[in-house]
Amino acid sequence: MSAILVVDDVPAMAEQYAYDLKRVGGYDVLVALSGRAALDLLEREAVDCVILDLEMPGMDGFEVLRTMERRGLRMPVLVYTGTGNYDRCTEAIRLGARSFIDKAEPMERVVQEVEHALEQQRLAGQLAALRGRLDSEAPLVGASPAMQALKDAIGRVAKIPSPVLIVGESGSGKELVARELHRLGANPAGPFIALNAAAIPENLVEDELFGHERGAFTGAGALRKGAFEAASGGTLFLDEIGELPPAAQAKLLRVIEQRQITRLGGNRTVAVTARVVAATNRDLEAEVRAGRFRDDVYFRLNVHVVRVPALRERLSDIPALVEHLLMVTCARFGVRPKTVDPAALDCLMRYDWTRNNVRELRNVVERMIIATDGETMCGEHPRRRPGKRGSAGERRRGPRTDHIPRPQGGGGAPDHRRSPGAQRLAHHADGAGAGPCRSCEPLEDHAPPQHQPRIGSRLSAAE
Ligand SMILES: Nc1ncnc2c1ncn2[C@@H]1O[C@H](COP(=O)(O)OP(=O)(O)OP(=O)(O)O)[C@@H](O)[C@H]1O
Ligand SMILES: [Mg+2]
Asked: Where are the beta strands (DSSP E) in 197-241?
């Protein structure tokens, strides 16, 4: 139910308006009898729309609009006037009001106007969510049997409202899978809110999840909605759920079971309409055995488990992944699209990806792009610099960052169900056109050393 705040210094007028709004529009209506009381209320309550009188003693409607703007209070405001002075209304719109209504208008018209404002606000939210998605969305690339099984699993659970647990190694694509679940879910236009439990200080986790009422603790000057409320009607992605502190785990269980939250410092309950998707790269069962993760939360989450395969289980996806990563990274850097030397691709296909994942493949591709002046990127050719790089110890640590990794012996077993571009790459990888390329020299000589991502490491700030 939408909450509307009526601000008017004449109590009889405000009460009558509130009564009619409730009766005709079915809203939850709050009343403030002065500008100051209105601002105070807006800091304490979750208000969806304000109906504001302009002429009030003390702080008038214009000052309320200015202060709302300063404080970042973005709910739509309809000003209403009994004077018929439309110049003043125009001035209010300049200050951020959505529209104006005459006090004499029938309530049905006012409700129409309120609905219009609420709808506009919803659309603006959806647009922002879509923009964010366009920026961050990447297709789930890969047609290997392992990826096919993953896509089938996503398709099966996407529409159901129950929680889903995504498991998989670090950098294997869990967040991408969560976004895909949202995209194929019941309300893809709704918000997708990601919260990384490992990245939030322990004492702030509950505040981030559930929000707080004004005055809940020192410094809580205004009501703040948490991630559950922000994700209303959409998806709340709880990343690295294994890192959630025990107290927050207990509250999470209650929220999942009762489908409602209570903001910190309050006793009002708010219905939860967000779908929960959690992810972990930990063995949660082992965490439960070790007493670090609550078994009741685990059992509630693991009803639907989606496992993301590691890159080494789907080596045949590498050509398509490299092609995709090249395209998006070149576009992001604003450079002309580059291609990969077949021998380099061959190296990537045969590299021992035992401990690393798509994120590292992405990093390797990115470094290759930076290190290559020409249009064709190439890496270390096996016959060059024999024995100089790629010692057993180095292979164990993962590829060097300034060139394509040395392959592990034996070669891969590519699967040829690929896009035409990927097939082209794969064709080269089979030997056609292989050979040294001019960009090898600068690539090997000038690229700066970098360190490797650790397995189990957190998302870096750059991500
Ligand atoms: N199938 C895929 N297709 C395209 N890109 C992928 C795929 N899988 C992973 N990636 C890319 O690899 C990178 C790592 O993916 P993501 O962040 O989803 O991994 P993660 O499993 O959530 O990692 P972590 O456990 O460290 O949080 C991202 O840039 C993502 O876009
Ligand atoms: Mg992640």
From this structure: 211-212, 224-225, 235-239
Q: Considering all CA atoms of the chain, what is the largest pairwise distance in Å, rounded to the nearest integer? A: 90
What sign for the dihedral angle of Cα 311, 313, 315, 321? negative
pLDDT for 132 equals: 62
Q: What is the pLDDT of residue 104?
A: 86
Q: Which ligand has the minimum distance to the alpha carbon of residue 310?
A: 1
CA–CA distance from 29 to each of 15, 34, 54, 105, 134 (Å)? 10, 16, 19, 18, 36
Tokens standing for residue 451: 């360190």
Ranking 117-126, 134-143, 173-182, 305-314 by mean pLDDT, the lowest is 134-143
- 3 state DSSP class of 10: coil
**Do 100 and 159 fall into the same domain?**
no
Of 143-157, 245-259, 385-399, which range is least confident? Answer: 385-399
* Rounded (10°) CA dihedral 219, 220, 225, 227: 40
Q: Is the CB of 243 within 6 Å of ligand 1? A: no
pLDDT tens-digit series, residues 139-168: 899 999 999 999 999 999 999 999 999 999
Q: Ligand 1: does its nearest atom lie under 6 Å from the Cβ of 179?
A: no
> Are residues 185 and 245 located together in one domain of the fold?
yes
Which tokens sit at 438? 């001019």
Q: Are residues 117 and 201 in the same domain?
A: no
Kindly tell me if the per-residue pLDDT of 381 is higher than 50.
no
Work out the percent of the chain whose per-residue pLDDT is above 70. Answer: 79
Count CB-CB contacts under 10 A for residue 70.
8
Q: Which residues contact 334 (CB under 8 A, 6 or more apart)?
A: none
Determine the Cα–Cα distance for residues 159 and 244; give it in Å rounded to an integer: 26
Residues 8 and 14 sit within 8 Å (Cβ to Cβ): yes
Binding site membership of 329 for ligand 1 (Cβ less than 6 Å): no
Look at the chain and count its residues. Answer: 463
- Please check whether residues 167 and 296 belong to one and the same domain: yes
Q: Which of 97, 131, 165 is the last residue of a domain?
A: 131
Quick check: is 136 in a domain? no
Is residue 326 within 8 A of residue 369, CB to CB? The reply is yes
pLDDT per position as a tens digit, 307-364:
999 999 999 999 999 999 998 888 888 888 888 888 888 888 888 777 778 998 998 8
Question: What is the domain-level CATH number for residue 363?
Answer: 1.10.8.60
The range of the structural domain enclosing residue 348 comes to: 313-462
Distance 198 CA to ligand 2 centre (A): 10
Residue type at 76 in one-letter notation:
P
The domain boundary, picked from 240, 275, 309, lies at: 309
Residue 94 is part of a domain; what is its CATH number? 3.40.50.2300
Residue 358 in contact with ligand 1 by CB distance below 6 A: yes
- In angstroms, the CA 226 to CA 211 distance is 4
Same structural domain for residues 155 and 182? Answer: yes
